[in-house]
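In this section we walk through a basic example: taking a raw amino acid sequence and producing a predicted 3D structure, encoded as discrete structure tokens. The instruction is simple. Fold the sequence below.
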Amino acid sequence: LNSAYLELHYVPWVSNVCVTLTAVPRNYDPALHPFEVPREYTRALNATKLERVFAKPFLSSLDGHRDGVNCMAKHPKSLSTVLSGACDGEVKIWNLTKRQCIRTIQAHEGFVRGMCARFCGTSFFTVGDDKTVKQWKMESPEYGEEEEPIHTILGKTVYTGIDHHWKEAVFATCGHQVDIWDEQRTSPMCSLTWGFDSISSVKFNPIETYLLGSCASDRNIVLYDMRKSTPLKKVILNMRTNTLCWNPMEAFIFTAANEDYNLYTFDMRFLESPVMVHMDHVSAVLDVDYSPTGKEFVSASFDKSVRIFPVGKGHSREVYHTKRMQHVITVKWTSDSKYILCGSDEMNIRLWKANASEKLGVLAPREKAAMNYNQKLKEKFQYHPQIRRIAQHRHLPKSIFCQIKEQRIMREARRRKELNRRKHSKPGSMPFVSERKKHIVAVVK
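The resulting token sequence is shown next.
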């Protein structure tokens, strides 16, 4: 007995309705349901169309900065708290539930180059153009107290990035070199360097917490082991990497945002070739951040758009843009995996849904069941041409659309030229080079 239905009987001499539960057997034999697949296909098509109709990802804009937003940090313990630093040295703490600024600090003179929160959430660190590292309380000062940092470290050179250890009272800064600091000391525990160029960002591995990755302006991505106090290995790419982000679920995987419009996902054990090359942006990629699930990441680009990529796919599943949004400098994926925050040149922080057509708020059981059923139908028929066309179609700004078209023509021309050269060369003299290996210059250990 696989299903049941309710029989409603109205009895005239009784004031209420009698309910009888009658069991009905259901036969799943396909021969008895000859139109099941066409019926499901129509439902999948309608579900895909409705998904695009309800795709309204933009939630709100957090205004208040007086200069471009240069960096952001998440609170490790509070979902509703986010920190942002601007190009005028101002740091703001936001409450996402109320969507308003709850505290403003004039932290530095010049740019706030980087910021990070302590793993316990009691304080946060900022670095700026004034060659200082400052530690601030997360709580607002009491009435009558002045807004002052807990500690200030004055360095010899400008620091361009900072990241805190995930379990210990240790943090790392980068600039001329990578410095590892103890919170209680005013001089670094150790300094790591390989090469002579400035380092733009440094990140601790969230799983193997003693590992660090850094990006240098001489096109290197360098990996360090904090226990050995020496660099492990480095990979040299064709163009400069702006930043990298470690996968929070897979210890060896990290994704690098590059100047050549691509993102590269590497396995740190096999740096000779990236695991995946993610293409779609039409200008330099400036920031990248992983979802807490480790299955997707979000990227911010100079082309005024934000894209969401599945880790195992070369093209984005979603692109977000607005008329007013300028170059996107920084991006963060919230710790509940539901929202995305991006900070851009025109002084705004924007809040987006990670799933554009998701309904927010509490869902009724029937809504949940219908949503799950529609999701399974879309997965079942995802490769059908009509459904695939509707699901993948995105409206783009004219500038991005024209640049994509232009780059497609250029890519096709390069492919044609290579084909002609191979055709008129000695057999075997022009080996085939895969797209993944084209962008790697060398790996040094």
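Looking at the output, two observations stand out. The chain has five helices and 31 strands. The longest strand covers residues 3-10. In the next section we compare this with other chains.
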